[in-house]
Design brief:
Layout (H helix, E strand, L loop, with lengths): L5 E4 L2 H7 L11 E2 L5 H5 L19 E2 L19 E2 L13 H6 L31 E7 L9 H5 L6 E6 L8 E5 L17 E5 L24 E3 L2 E2 L14 E10 L2 E12 L5 E11 L6 E3 L16 E5 L8 E6 L8 E5 L11 E4 L4 E4 L16 E6 L4 E7 L5 E6 L10 E4 L8 E6 L7 E8 L4 E8 L2
Parallel strand pairs: 2-3
Antiparallel strand pairs: 1-14, 4-5, 5-26, 6-7, 7-8, 9-10, 11-12, 12-13, 13-14, 15-16, 16-17, 17-18, 18-19, 20-21, 21-22, 22-23, 24-25, 25-26
Length: 467
Amino acid sequence: MSPRPRIASVSMASAAAIGLVVSMVVAPTANAEPCEGPAAQAQPQPNQAFEIPNPSRLGTLNRPIGHMPSGANDSAALPKLGLLPSILKALTPPPQPGQVRQQAGVVPTTPKPAPVAKPVQPAPEAAPPSGPPGTSLVGWVTGPDSPNQTIQRFAITGTDLGIMWDNGDPANHQVLMAFGDTSGFCQIPNKQWRYNVLFRSSDGALSNTVAVPDGVVGNKYSGSPVWRQGISKQIINTIGQAPDETGIIPTSGVAVGTTQLLNFMSIRDWNSPGSWSTNFSAIAVSSDNGENWGVYPGTIRPPSGGNENFQMGAFLKPGPGDPYLYTFGTPNGRGGSAYIARVAPNLVPDLSKYEYWNSDNGTWVPANPAAATPVIPGPVSEMSAQYNTYLKQYLALYGNGSNDIVMRTAPAPQGPWGPEQLLVPQSQIPGGIYAPFLHPWSTGRDLYYNLSLWSAYNVMLMHTVLP
């Protein structure tokens, strides 16, 4: 398995200089929703008014129905900013440090990998004051109601996900955010549909959203990789490994040193709400802070032989003293359980070096994804996980079978994971909530996370204060 990436998104000039064959296929045409209200009325600036090149042979693609949570009310009123009714009474108090030590994770059964560079610490200014336990809607990250003005500044009227991770760069410390299917101006042919886009932010205050600066062409630290001023570019294109592909959707991101890694899934079909089928999952890589991306061909996981349980990923950086990088896996759709694997950070492109947790034997099994057993029972939707410095435990956020956003905690990445604890009930935001992605700089009592809302087809920033 070659660690050399297949380049899927570089400039034509750069490609010619290094002799690469580059696929310029971008997202297929789409009737993206919602093209109504402020989004439909928005008028592009002259620099934004162009049709994205689209040589794909695929037909029109509506807003991907598979992302719709079952039972979502598409006509529900938008939620109001501020505190949601109190729903945290069922949250258990944080464990005592001695209790955590007593429940320490299983000792590795294989030699530990070589030490890796010490991770960059979160930005010191990211310290909003804690308040009473509860969950609040802080503000919109994207869309017509966002302080980021993503329509005017990035040609983004609708999008989802907003996966966040620390870029690991001490010189320009930022959080990167990857989004899924993205629509632009409704008046432009094909509505400027993109499979995925990226934002960057150094905002640690998070006072009314995750603030994003302007995107600048060729500037790897600007607010977004852009084709031209005012329109975010698609960052991961097709690599031509599937005859039918209707989406390239990021599922998790992580930095190893200053190398950015992005797990994604290639969508074959969007089916019914909460259901879709995949061609494969794989890992994209960027050495320039997310400006350009390639794909490691050795990381392609077709949905078979145990890899069907790793079609969506959730990278996890461990707590103190643990040298591994972990990745949770779930099947395509929102009905499966969560599994877990680990690997030395410097060996991420080599699937033969991964170890999979088998709870039947209480061991990590090398190079055999079929040996993995569930660590969190399904249904588990899109998820994110991190080590929490306040709880001194690991926590995972996801949507459950009731489409509620819930949290579980555990003393080790492989568990045992505690019961679901309710953070955001579907009944309070009935437009259809999904995909809670934790902010990497909020590891204490204050949890900040992005959350997608189907009815608005945009991303919100949420804030939960733990008891």
